Amino acid sequence: MSSRDSEDPRAYRAYAADRAPVRITVPSGWWRFLPTREADGAGSVTAQLVRWNADNASADLVVTAVRRTVWDLEQTLGFRLPATVEGLLHHGQPRDDLVLPWPDGGWRAAQGQLLVDVGLDPADQPWRASWVNAGGFQTTYGRRMHSDRPLRSWQHEPYMVEIVGAYRDNPVLDSEPLQLTYRICLGDRVVFAGDDVTIPSELAGGSDDAVREVIRQALDRPRDPRDLTYVQQSFLDVQRERLALRTLGLAPPYSPGSRVRVDLQGGMAATGVVRGPVVRNGRTTGYLWRPDVADLPGHPGYRNPDYLRYAEGTRVRDTLAAKDTAIEGQGGPVVLTFGATVASVDDPRFDRGRVLRAVDDDGLLVYDVEPDNNRGASYRLDVDDVIPLSGTAWPTVDRLLEARAAAGVTPAPGEILVTLREIAMMPYSGRMVPAALVRQELHSPDRLLDPDTPSAAVDVAPADGLPGHLPALDPFGTAEPPPPSLPELPDTPDFDSWGDLDL
Predict the structure, then answer these.
(1) pTM, whole model, 2 decimals?
(2) Which ranges are annotated Acidic residues under compositional bias (predicted)?
(3) Do 164 and 222 share a domain, yes or no?
(4) What backbone phi and psi angles, to 5 degrees, belong to 321?
(5) Confidence of residue 484 (pLDDT cuts 50, 70, 90)
(6) 354 and 405: one domain?
(7) Helices in 221-300 by DSSP H: which ranges?
């Protein structure tokens, strides 16, 4: 999407003259938001959509929506508002004097209400490059939403549940229930939002159980159909049961496709997907599972659907945790390298892309990114201008260089190459060749992310009478009796076709 709203809107007279405390541009014009009061004196929030005229100097009022809270407004309009905007509208002084009146008759008000009920056009909704002017401070919608991240986000296409925050009426009393603010979205559209979900004090606000409670309480409560928008009623009719099934708390044994958390030695844990049970004497005692990190470029399991691991059943439990994409290290965010994927914070030219290289640009970390929508192009962006989506698992610099050479990515001055076992940097001058790299070894302790690391070698002999290579099934050196070897996997794994592995 590329439009006038990615430019600085203060250059346009109609926008610059608007004194609303919060303004958000959209391709068709801008939304103005004001704290207001109802006739009974109760606080409310008013949103008005103003569309540009062809001359860019004037604009027409198209929609006016008045709701008691920002959450009510979000589920009416269908898009998210930054937390800073929510704070300004909830705690700001009422500005009823700035509400724009309808210029003529009631037909335009009816037309605007219909637009809200059926759903706003994409041109009437903010996107990452839209401008947000809140309290006199201007930044982009993408940057504001990125800085105002929720406490917990759970996503399973096409659904997304966000727990925006958790609080107690009396913060001193830990025994008080937690109040949750939340959103339930279908794709990018907010369908339900509110601050009326309560969970017991012993539950964490960002836990799996909290996500399940948001879905249960928000969707199962009695509602007057007259208070629902068309989108909300359709969601309840078609999507409610499907969403509930996606988030059910599962009990073992887990079926293929179940997302699980596997406890590892040393207090570590990993997430992945069950591919099949291992059954002894009619009882499930363990699972074949595929770690999330096996899908990362550079990992031995990358593009190999038959790459699996074994875990004892006592170490496995279900989870709603997001897929582990290795974008956080022990000390914080990692330096991304070739093959990592990112999203743009607010660059109007692209939404997502692939990292080509990381560069030290005069003391600042920048990335060269190839956009998904323009293969062959390269944009250099500051580290704060991208959102890491997935990392990589290149074991060594040489393996990384081989993959880059195959993709036609050449070295650059000041480039930083970070792998699991090494870090290297290209000098700023001289020949840009691999021999010029200054390298330093790193310790690679993660046996799941780097199963072939020399420090992960485990000398475990196969059980007598059972063929196979046990370290490939249990790379963690567990003390439990090793499982028997498994039948050879087919070229295209299909556990449903051959049932449980009764060994």
Answers:
(1) 0.83
(2) 491-503
(3) yes
(4) -60, 145
(5) very low
(6) yes
(7) 230-238, 240-246
